[in-house]
């Protein structure tokens, strides 16, 4: 921690007596001594860039060591790197980014990315809150109390499915659930929800971040909420539930918002108190927002439309602020976000692959996890609407932009991760230029094909190269070597990029 720091202090919910009636989250307030003897006290969403950087380094310095010690997947990937270098963002960037396919190849459902510390590792790497909880438990119950406290901090008690096909399991411990409720309360505050709001959710029940994130939002903020859509239910069930309550907030998957308004109209359910539609998914385009607002306007409701989204393999949902469409507001004390080049894994100066390091969590440890979501560069200036200083994801978001469905044969479907081609080719010294494209079935080959063109004088076993691309991308490639560099470059120009889908 910074010199003179007293450590994180959780201030309780501050809704009582608030004349605005707005939900305010539990604020992570950090008191840090400054060189002039003054103390900086700032809530999680109002810190200066310098203070954010100091606290990020303090969190990473302990957490990266904990992950290295206790996560079977990440430990060998950090081999040979001195712990003293893993203390800030520069140290973090020494670690190789990972993709969903890397986790699934290492262990079923990515289970080896879950922290499994022994007592010695907990003692050496746990944060002050966990150490204090263990000390209290020892005073109260002795050795049995110590074991119970460690179990509460680290044993997974909730799992959700994420990734392209829901094959990746993300684990949360009991202490993680406390953090998820705090993150949910923050999202509610960013959305401008009030403590007298009544929430009805149309997000289908299930082990998904979308459903559980809305549950954590309502519970963390202390809102009256009905999660009205069971597995297999249609929108009629949501509309009927909304009619039973003085509903002010509707939460609905982005693609179903207009349909929900139609169903409400058909069932003659009026929601005069409705004021906000929260669409779960990447922020809708302006014309889509207008259609949603108009559809509910036809029912007599004057609503604003705001988005709530996070990558499906992530930990919490991010929200747009009540004051305008200024991007998704993230949580810099809970995660470090980067935008990386999807092919090389290097930091991108422009748009690229949204990459998450989930700092301080005790279940699944994300370290430079490339989510596959295409985003523009993160906005790090203060939000022009609400003034929050957290990083924002502004502009279009395309989930799983590089992970595409393919027909493996006449019956089986799968996915191909085009980023994997670049990862392998980048480590192949003789390749001077390359391009890859997906092609559909033809009369000779009744399946989708991954065609890779390579310029350069081939060296080594091409069968080995094909095998490594197949593992990294998920589909066996058809390699063509010895192509002139100029010809490869013409193909890239014609396709509009080094990767193309020609199907």
Question: Gyration radius, to the nearest Å?
Answer: 24 Å
| Main beta-sheet strand count, sense and barrel state | 8 strands, mixed
Q: Could you list the spans in which at least 5 consecutive residues all have pLDDT below 50?
A: 1-19, 26-38
Question: What structural class results from the helix and strand content?
Answer: alpha/beta
In helices, the fraction of residues equals: 25-40%
Side-by-side strand order of the widest sheet: 7-6-8-9-10-11-12-16
End-to-end distance, in Å? 53 Å
| Average of per-residue pLDDT values | 89
Annotation field: number of helices: 15
Beta percentage is: 15-25%
Shape, per Cα inertia axes: globular
- The tally of beta strands, per DSSP, is 22
Task: Describe the protein in words.
The protein has 15 helices and 22 strands. The protein has helices at residues 49-70, 74-77, 89-92, 100-106, 119-125, 128-141, 143-154, 174-191, 209-221, 235-244, 257-266, 286-297, 419-426, 462-473, 485-495, and strands at residues 7-11, 27-33, 39-42, 156-162, 168-173, 198-201, 224-227, 249-253, 276-280, 304-309, 318-320, 328-329, 336-340, 352-357, 369-375, 392-393, 403-407, 413-417, 433-439, 449-455, 477-480, 499-501. The strands form six sheets. It has an eight-stranded mixed β-sheet, with helices on both faces. It has a four-stranded mixed β-sheet with strand order 21-20-19-22, with helices on both faces. The protein has a three-stranded antiparallel β-sheet with strand order 1-2-3, with no helix packed on it. Strand 2 and strand 3 form a beta hairpin. Helix 11 (257-266) packs parallel to helix 12 (286-297). 44% of the residues are buried.
